[in-house]
Specification:
The chain is mainly alpha-helical and 135 residues long. 62% of the residues lie in helices and 5% in strands. It has helices at 2-9, 12-46, 79-106, 122-134; strands at residues 57-60, 75-77.
């Protein structure tokens, strides 16, 4: 069983998948950094400097003082954070779309495979059969 597991783990597909996951997480960090540090400030500027993450509907206020015993934080529906998530999703999708589009332009077009040689037509086959029958 250990030999089977070792053979499974050492196959190319598993190692390639592991590398793809690691690269995807690194690319995710780069894209999130781009969105959060470059794009979101621009979106905030166009929205009048509004930060959506502060928007919330408070259901019950905080009780006590932060850091003291018995402190109860406010219970709120933070819909602003959800709006930020939606904007991030759309922005990340747009950035990925632009990256793939640029990649497809740069990628060389693969040469088309030569067409398979056409076999004899039905008429040619019938002519060959006729000739064989004549012999």
């Amino acid at each position: 069983m250990l030999k089977e597991f070792k053979a499974f783990i050492m196959t190319g597909n598993v190692i390639e998948f592991a590398v793809a996951v690691i690269l995807a997480s690194a690319i995710g960090l780069v894209i999130n950094g781009f969105v959060n540090d470059i794009v979101m400030p621009i979106v905030g500027q166009f929205s009048g400097g509004m930060d959506f993450s502060n928007l919330a509907i408070e259901l019950s206020p905080a009780q006590g003082v932060v850091g003291e015993a018995g402190y109860v934080p406010a219970n709120a529906i933070r819909y602003g954070a959800w709006i930020n998530s939606i904007v991030n999703l759309i922005t990340v999708g747009l950035v990925l779309f632009m990256m793939i589009k640029a990649y497809n332009k740069v990628k060389k077009a693969e040469p088309e495979a030569p067409a398979a040689p056409a076999g004899p037509t039905q008429e040619e086959l019938l002519a060959q059969i006729r000739d064989l029958l004549k012999k």
